[in-house]
């Protein structure tokens, strides 16, 4: 029987929904953990899903870690995981530059060491990681030396983001042939205890504003991230479930790609947010209404243990 959207996933509906899919894509921050604190029961859910024959993937817009670093973090929290099942924004961005942009040249990178590593793994040289303190006067900033081999400005999470980095990106992007690519547009990163810090979306918005153009992004809700998983593992979209805590990235990605969607209320978005989209009557907002929601993915446990 068809059910209406935004239904609490409970009772027999859990098994019914799990039976209808072969692969489950999990967002990480706000679904499996908050900061360095695992969501209680999350690793049991993942491990039991795998044991029952489901393919499980980890799909995160967070660009602060390589695939290997994510696999290590998951393992340390008790999750069974292969590095190849992790699709982080740093890795997907490197795949995008290599396979879609076919970039010939260097990258000016506003991002982390993890992003540097993923770029190097596919043979792309980069400059820019680390602090970039300001010196001189405004005219010096406008004439800051540029590397003529740089063909793209790439923006991800950068804890050293500064005015000088913004300025350097601006100067590179004065060249209309220089690409502007970002990992994602998430504006906040949820942490334990109800806390949050500004996300990559805030940094990317600053660069876009300075450059007066919009970046191409590879993270959710862009279908590129799903395409990376689907092409490597031969997924069928109608046999996939996307699980996330954000309506505007995770759930929208699922809708964009024809996946079933499940909102976990352990992170950013609330049921009220989803219902507001549902009653808006706006076609774009309806795409952000999940099929199902749970208080936590631990709600799936009884169906998996039974
Ligand atoms: Mg999340």
Structure overview:
This protein is of the alpha/beta class and 306 residues long. The protein has 2 domains: 140 residues, 3-Layer(aba) Sandwich (Rossmann fold), CATH 3.40.50; 127 residues, Rossmann fold, CATH 3.40.50. Helix content is 38%, strand content 19%. The strands form 4 sheets. Strands 1-16-15-14-2-5-6 form a 7-stranded parallel beta sheet, sandwiched between helices. Strands 8-7-9-10-13 form a 5-stranded parallel beta sheet, sandwiched between helices. α4 packs parallel to α5. The longest helix is centred in the first third of the chain and has 12 residues. The radius of gyration is 20 Å and the shape is elongated. The two termini are 23 Å apart. The relative contact order is 0.18. The mean pLDDT is 96. The structure holds magnesium ion (MG). Magnesium ion binds next to loops.
